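Pilot study result, target chain (261 residues):
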Amino acid sequence: DDTAAVIAASINVNTTKRKLTCSADKIIRLVGNPQITFNYSVEFGGATLDLSEFTGTINFTRPTAPVEYLPGSPVLEALKTETNLTGKYFSGWVSTPEVKDAFVQIETTQPFYNYLGTDYTRTEINQSVRYGVMVSPLLFPLPTSMITKVTVYPNEPRITTVGGFNLLLGEMPQANMINVEHSHVRLQRIGLVPADVTQAANPVIINAMRCLDIELRDVVTNWPSLTATTGAYIFAAWRCYNIRFIDCVGDGDGWGAVGTS
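Predicted structure:
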């Protein structure tokens, strides 16, 4: 059981802001249901992570906490110098350092779409560069009077890489096994091996949330035999901006990737 050692290593590298490197071809066995979090790069060097008795989660998260701005705050009120936001230039943010080089989420009361009988309001996600310039232009005008909250996720100054491991997943009893909430992150050289078991639900192996610039490269999955009425996802995304899949393949009855806004 290597759980305690892995937790201690994660605390150490998060505190010292260093990259964690593991011995090549090592078998690391995790058990129980702890939440293990890494803020910086991890190179497993070809190690196998045995999660067959693990019901916790492994989290790769940004070290800097997001900041929420509500009505009345300078960041949100600055947008109201325009009646409608259009295109990729927000003039109200020309002198707003809080949003420089950041992933931004703008929540509104504007009705946007209906899904399965439920109405959803508009939420914009984008990358703010500086001086009010966004990376992507808005597809539709956004009335600033309808903005209720702006959440700013500062981008990391360097790329975070995680990879070089095989996961022995067992029966995957939990909903999400690996959670990613980061910016400029690369998941690479990963093998995923679930057990041959019939699932009662649809678990997700890698779950990305509120990520900017996330890339999956050389991710290979060998799925077990599943019945026609069940399945599992390799990857799910929620409110992520700029996702890339390169040389990601799977064999068997898995369902692949699903993304939601």
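One observation from the pilot: The chain has a mean pLDDT of 89. A full batch analysis is planned for the follow-on phase.
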